[in-house]
Amino acid sequence: MSVVVFVNENCWKPAGKNACIVTLSGLAFAEIDYDGFCRKLINLKEKFFKRQDIGGYPLRGRLLLNRRSLDSYRKREFVQELFSLGRLQKGVVFSFTKSYQQSPHDKIEKPDIDLSAGQERSNEMFPFLLERVNAFTLERHPGRMANLIFKLEDRTQSKSISEEIMQLVYKSPYAQGFQGISGAPMFMPSSHSPGLQAADVFAYIINQHQGGRYEMKDFYSEVESLQYVSSYEVDDYQLRGINVIS
Questions:
Q1: What is the CATH number of the domain that holds 191?
Q2: What whole-number distance in Å separates Cα of residue 76 and Cα of residue 96?
């Protein structure tokens, strides 16, 4: 059995700030645990949102946890159930967040809109994410490979991601160390991927918290409890899944 890692990018430009907060995150499961996660999440969505079709009500962090949605007890309760399900099925979270300066003339200042950060920004963080995923796979699932799964969007973006991942895994100076990751990423429609949907919710929470949104504090603590923490130390520090790049 392999490991599946659902990768998501989330970006937020806080109102009144000339910076875009970009988060690249991953949500990992052993394949056998992910099957149970899918079954239970589909049932949860049916219970909370009365949708019986598989692709009905695709989860998005900005739709579940924007300021207006936080007034909904049902949505808040659902997110708590999502955390519990993640723990039950042994989901593991990774993320890297970085602040990018933008032009002061940029007028996009709506805090709850998921912005496109530009593929070159998330590509810059791929080596950091792959390093953690590789360490996790080698440590927790020796002999297995992690398969990276991205949201299927346009052909140009998918090609860019594929080239970047293959370059890192097969041809970069890091390549010899990436023994726990497949260099051939996969792409799926998020509407029919419970893993990508959950990854979007977790990435949104991390991104909003790192950007200073105080309402996310308790939600962030739940996500943080799911992060990868290595049992080994590197330079007197444990490798952790959730990180901020200065």
A1: 3.30.420.10
A2: 25
